[in-house]
User: Fold these one by one.
Assistant:
Number 1:
Amino acid sequence: MGGIQATPPPPPEFDRPWRMMHWGSKDVIEQKLRNFRPDNVQFVRILVVGEVGAGKSSFINSVNNAFQGRITSGALVGGIGGTSFTKAYKTHYIQRKDASHLPFVFNDTMGLESSESGAHVQDIINALHGFLQEAYRFNPASPLSSNAPGYRSSPSLEDQTFCLVNIMAADKISLMDSGVFRKLQAIREAASHLNMPQVIIMTKVDLVCPLVHHDIKKIYTSKRIKEKMQECSNILGLPMNYIFPVKNYHEEIDTEDDMDLLILKALDQIMHIAADKSCTHEN
Ligand SMILES: Nc1nc2c(ncn2[C@@H]2O[C@H](COP(=O)(O)OP(=O)(O)OP(=O)(O)O)[C@@H](O)[C@H]2O)c(=O)[nH]1
Ligand SMILES: [Mg+2]
């Protein structure tokens, strides 16, 4: 009697989604992307960067899975912890059914780390400019110098990055080390200096929200996901409409339309942003 009444915890969900998703429209968005034609280039190049283990390679595979309708592993994925599993700069193409390629490509990079290990910031900046040749092996100790083999001194428009995709794992945002943060900031500043569009893909949403873990369609009603996106926004200083939460394929053996839709929708936004850029990009 007369004890302190605990206030019930606030509900974990908004009454209605704060961002509209037309679940069930995977085919429409897929077709739209398949019909996309960039103006001045054969391929729009998307550079994928982020902390070690954030899900960069998994994201590239997830995009490919969504188009192929099956689980693929073009980009090798590592375990959790340790140093970066991806060691080389590699372009990933997405095949059409006739074996030609879709007009966007992804460049995977070595993960960033707080210490001296991991990709060197200057090498990521080299990649933005298109200075890194295919298969360049990242060297944490020293970035590629302009007179070394493997350095492309006059990159074509197509060699250059059109959009920088920062991958941030939802479960690690609040734990981000200041060293990694400084590296991300330096890359972001270099990209801004080049007037390059930038977005954040927030991965591992299943690890921070049980609602979303059970039903990916709750992604935009989950308060936790919105909070995590706001943290991403604060860290990199990008507005919310440049942040896309996704769950990457990591344990599934078949593709799922709802996961695909979220991934393809993010790609569609990236293509809009990058295509605007391809019209204004200077050689
Ligand atoms: N639960 C969950 N796990 C994920 C997700 N995305 C990636 N993973 C797992 O996270 C681990 C690291 O994924 P990678 O794709 O290798 O990450 P990366 O950023 O390429 O890592 P490095 O190349 O080592 O820098 C793997 O065990 C993946 O299966 C996701 O959305 N949800
Ligand atoms: Mg990787």
Note: The chain is about 30% helix and 10% strand.
Number 2:
Amino acid sequence: MILALLNQKGGVGKTTLALAVAGEWAMQGRRVILVDADPQGSALDWSEMRAREGLPRLFSVIGLARDTLHREAPALARDADLVVIDGPPRVAGLMRSALLATDMVLIPVQPSPFDGWASAEMLALISEARIYRPELVARFVLNRCGARTVLARDTAETLADHDPPALASRIGQRIAFAAAAQSGRIVRELDHESVAAREISALAAEVAHLGSPRSAS
Ligand SMILES: Nc1ncnc2c1ncn2[C@@H]1O[C@H](COP(=O)(O)OP(=O)(O)O)[C@@H](O)[C@H]1O
Ligand SMILES: [Mg+2]
């Protein structure tokens, strides 16, 4: 399966969640490749930091920030159980290519009851990709939720009502994510019983369920 974390907005958690989900699947013994499609290369930086810290390799990280991604990703997917694409900010050509490459797109957003969760441009790119890839699965993932995050009618149904819908799993605002990123680790390696680690396990499980042929709808 190919999973892409995309949002034209920067700082929403694309890299954080891409590394976390990739790490979770790798820890479960699956073969994972992370494609860093951001010219800034933050996932590559993480992997270099990890090597410098002398930590064992969890998954390979390759830099592929070009709009031929959709032609190159399928070959990678043949050698892996999961290919995770850490998406670029802003660049529409790269975004298009990533959307054509992927089976599932997760759009990290910081939830707010006041405005839409994604730019019109982002949603238009998803609609456009669906012309070629009608089976493309798209979900928002609510990231950096505060303890007091108030969403209008904060129920599972409301989340499912959005288009695209939001995953039931949410990720809180947790220092562990920044601490892990800075030391080339994933949150589970800092403390496998932390709330952050449990949230990521739940997220990875929901993604696996959604991506398995049995649950296709
Ligand atoms: N759930 C979270 N809790 C705390 N900090 C977070 C969380 N998600 C992301 N961050 C922090 O926010 C910043 C931006 O996240 P990042 O994943 O790099 O975003 P993007 O890749 O979308 O630009 C980073 O410093 C990261 O550590
Ligand atoms: Mg990033």
Note: Residues 195-211 form the longest helix (17 residues).
